[in-house]
Design goal:
The protein has 23 helices and eight strands. It has about 525 residues and is of the alpha/beta class. The longest helix has about 35 residues.
């Protein structure tokens, strides 16, 4: 179903593209951009109002959240409306991508199938992820990246139980797509090698390229607020934005549509360096206005385009310093870097570029660029690295209301004063307390006169102790030593990091000297967030 969805999507894009070029009275279709694009923008705006769809609903992130938080609930009518509108937009030349809408369609069709089969809800998230991943696999002919997408972005975990259906669905979808379109690479890349000349400039390139997603999200947030502030008159703004985008694409038709053909021309040396930088600026401006206006589409293809042209321009600068530098290498590195920064998924971004281009010899620099970009863009907000793990626990760190509530909390609100064990106490005392009390974890301190936290005893420790001779065992023999502990002045970021990394309902809390204060009650904290 994912493979067939991708075929239908691409056929629809081709249909609308042929329709527009056929009815054009000019030899060059881009002459019509200033007229066609504002009309397309306005039609998309009307459809979004009719079906109550916001552009944020069509992103990969939102599809992933719907699966992990809401266990589906996709709307068939909205999914088909998004598919038709996006096909119309891309066919007309609007600079948007395909992955967001195709992911939504994959979710819609797989959920429809699951309802017909009446599968149990325990497995529903896995099957929905298979539907989304298979649709992406077929669209980009990138099954490995699609599998990683399912584990990295949607489910946030990996094991054989999840991997087997993901591998099967993504592989079959790729085969179905290859039957229709062949085993294609998105854009043709000459054989490239990463030499010592490029290694020196890699960190500088990543620094420069990281500015692209940084500015993209700044402008994206600005237009989101603008769209809300002028929501009652937004149709007029959409039309004006369409005219501006149409004029930009009239002068730089290379920036229209998905743009993979232009990347091929860039890498084969058919586009002069200065023109490539101008096309990069035109594409960035057009993409910002298109998504700012609320036009449906994916961010992956525009990200790859911007990264390729931006990276190539950076490579040309490096070539002035060292003539042995190959700008085409930095074009591919740039694609992965910018895609990582905008999608916030470095491993998937790396594999997408490698699979799209079949450039397996550049695995190391592509991976490095993706990871470094992700780190640079999130170095002041470490919690974003743990977003997926927190989503699995129902905590959306991008939700403004959640963050507002978290800033008002005090760790002392959630402290449980659980009496500690002493290290020289016989384990029978620990066994008796864990049997009679409701806690699964007990803190361990050195002695009645020394309250320094030195360990934790859990039910698991008790079970393991059954393997040994228990007659002379002390608490110190079975405890988990030097446990992680929250400081008494812990911030909400510290709490969220602990929740993401630990699977426990109690976390010890210590003062500045390391003395045991109490146990942080995770269940109470989650209850606080829930209501």
């Amino acid at each position: 179903m994912g493979g067939v969805s991708a075929i239908v999507f691409r056929k629809a894009i081709s249909f609308f593209h042929n329709l527009f070029t056929t009815v054009s009275p000019f030899q060059q279709y881009h002459y019509l951009f200033p007229i066609i694009i504002p009309v397309v923008f306005l039609i998309t705006y009307k459809i979004s109002k009719l079906f109550v769809i916001s552009p944020e609903d069509v992103t990969i992130d939102e599809v992933a959240k719907r699966i992990s938080l809401k266990k589906g609930g996709f709307d068939l009518k909205k999914g088909l409306a998004v598919l038709g509108t996006t096909s119309f937009n891309i066919g007309a030349g609007v600079p948007v991508g395909r992955e967001g809408p195709i992911a939504k369609l994959g979710g819609v069709t797989s959920e429809l199938l699951m309802k017909i089969i009446k599968t149990d809800r325990l497995h529903l998230p896995i099957y929905l992820t298979c539907g989304v991943s298979s649709a992406i696999s077929a669209t980009f002919n990138a099954p490995i990246a699609a599998i990683l997408f399912g584990t990295e972005i949607v489910l946030g975990k990996i094991n054989s139980y999840i991997l087997i259906p993901l591998v099967v669905s993504s592989s079959i979808a790729a085969i179905v797509s290859q039957e229709a379109f062949g085993d294609f690479a998105a854009f043709t890349v000459p054989h490239l090698n990463f030499s010592n000349a490029e290694i020196i400039f890699l960190p500088i390139a990543v620094l420069l390229l990281s500015l692209i997603p940084l500015f993209f999200w700044i402008f994206f947030d600005f237009f989101s607020h603008l769209r809300y502030a002028f929501r009652h008159h937004w149709g007029k703004f959409v039309f004006i934005y369409g005219i501006v985008v149409g004029i930009v694409l009239f002068f730089f038709p290379e920036a229209a549509g998905v743009g993979y053909e232009q990347i091929t021309k860039l890498l084969s040396g058919q586009i002069p360096p200065f023109l490539s930088f101008q096309i990069f600026l035109a594409k960035f401006f057009a993409v910002i206005l298109a998504f700012g206006a609320g036009i449906f589409g994916g961010l992956m293809s525009p990200s790859i385009f911007l990264g390729a042209f931006g990276g190539f321009s950076a490579g040309e600068l490096f070539k002035l310093i060292d003539p042995s530098v190959n700008p085409a290498v930095f074009a591919l590195i740039g694609s992965a870097s910018v895609l990582s920064g905008i999608s916030r998924a470095p491993f998937r971004s790396s594999l997408i570029i490698i699979e799209l281009t079949h450039s397996y010899q550049l695995v190391v620099p592509i991976l490095l660029a993706s990871i470094m970009t992700k780190y640079l863009l999130n170095v002041e907000g470490e919690i974003s690295f743990l977003k997926r793990a927190l989503l699995n626990k129902g905590i959306d760190v991008e939700n403004i209301l959640t963050i507002k509530k978290l800033k008002d909390f005090n760790i002392s609100q959630f402290l449980k004063l659980i009496h500690p064990l002493y290290e020289n106490t016989h384990i029978s005392v620990a066994q008796e307390r864990l049997l009679k009390e409701k806690w699964r974890y007990l803190p361990v301190v050195k002695s009645p006169h020394d309250n320094h936290l030195i360990g934790i005893v859990s039910l698991r420790d008790i079970r393991i102790s059954a393997l040994f001779e228990a007659k002379n065992l002390k608490v110190r023999d079975i405890m988990t030593p030097d446990p992680f502990a929250l400081p008494l002045n812990a911030s909400f970021e510290d709490i969220l990091k602990a929740l993401a990394l630990l699977e426990t309902n109690l976390i010890p809390v210590v003062d500045e000297k390391g003395n045991y204060v109490g146990m942080f009650d995770v269940d109470e904290f989650l209850r606080f967030l829930s209501f």
